[in-house]
Amino acid sequence: MPEEKSAIEICDVTKLFGDAFKALDGVSLSIRKNEFFTLLGPSGCGKTTLLRLIAGFEYPTAGTIQLHGKDIATLPPYQRPINTVFQNYALFPHMTASQNIGFGLEMLGRPKAEIAARVDEMLRLVRMEGLRHRRTTELSGGQQQRVALARALAPTPKVLLLDEPLSALDYKLRKEMQIELKRLQLETGITFIFVTHDQEEALTMSDRIAVLSGGRVLQVGNPREIYDCPGDRFVADFIGEANFLSGEIIVATKDRAQVRLASGADILARLPDTAPQQGKVTIIVRPEHAEVHADGRPSPLSGTLESIVYFGTDTHLHVRLAHGDRFVVRRQNSPLQDAALVAGATVGVAFDLAAAQILRN
Ligand code: ATP
């Protein structure tokens, strides 16, 4: 028999709350072994519901969930080799770090010596050896997070579910823990399914991302695919900043099209298979793929530079286009660049043609 490559296979899963409210609507996903897989979407899109179905805290109304090729949709949580790290860590406050980490193994009735060795190994893994005797209440948020991770990893689950585990940490610690989580996943080889509404978190950590909205999966891909080739306007807007331009296809070839913009200019844009091949279309241009100039050279768009916002590493230039839309250009700061732009100036906006992409309607 060929080796099973997928860890979790979710097939056409629907979850109804009450008679009519569909929290999940025909969700199908194939999550691979050893993968750092992220469920990304705005509040209420169904991320936690999907995680709870995988964990066994809820059962699907319709559809199947398989783990390593076996149907688990009706198994209770404790019979699934799956663990969860919750947003609030859910540690036992009266126990020490070591006791918290060993708790699950004790419940499984493992021998004392084995538990002690495994707790040591987990403390090393999350770099908490020095704090093993501290009670939960004597640990910082970041340290509690590490204990929660160690506790969830201790029984060597096949899949670890993480429900917004970093949201309670401050910005710096969150950045640190993002790298830490990725390291833990690589070192343990366990499949991680991570839930977040933070697109930057998803882009920096994931092997692949599923973008959800309204209980449906809109797109699945690696971070580059999702950012560079968003399928539709929602994905494009949710992941990073985006400029949207209206236009009409004049002529299309296999993978690109000549589009007439509202400004009257013709541009070339990438044309994915999923996008319309004719008629009115929307084009996305990322702010970092465009440039602003004030030297009067011909460019597809023109307008007034409304504001210049300095961000340290880069500067955002907000342009009011001649036909009314706003367009944002992000320009990396460098001591060598010409600084001649001033708010109020009439400017041209140009972009790399390879950066403009037609979206699915
Ligand atoms: P958040 O990021 O805010 O946690 P989410 O994407 O995880 O959101 P879910 O918690 O999965 O969203 O909720 C999806 C939808 O289902 C929401 O509209 C929510 O109100 C609803 N919902 C979740 N659990 C229940 C329940 N037990 N009964 C009724 N409705 C529910």
TrEMBL record:
Part of the ABC transporter complex PotABCD involved in spermidine/putrescine import. Responsible for energy coupling to the transport system. Gene3D superfamilies: 2.40.50.100, Nucleic acid-binding proteins, P-loop containing nucleotide triphosphate hydrolases. NCBIfam families: potA. Belongs to the ABC transporter superfamily. Spermidine/putrescine importer (TC 3.A.1.11.1) family. Its EC number is 7.6.2.11. It comes from the Bacteria. One of its GO terms (cellular component) is ATP-binding cassette (ABC) transporter complex. GO terms for molecular function: ABC-type putrescine transporter activity; ATP binding; ATP hydrolysis activity. The complex is composed of two ATP-binding proteins (PotA), two transmembrane proteins (PotB and PotC) and a solute-binding protein (PotD). The keyword Phosphoprotein does not apply. Residues 8-239 form the ABC transporter domain. This is Spermidine/putrescine import ATP-binding protein PotA. Keywords: ATP-binding, Cell membrane, Membrane, Nucleotide-binding, Translocase, Transport. Pfam families: ABC_tran, TOBE_2. Signal peptide: none annotated. It catalyses: ATP + H2O + polyamine-[polyamine-binding protein]Side 1 = ADP + phosphate + polyamineSide 2 + [polyamine-binding protein]Side 1.
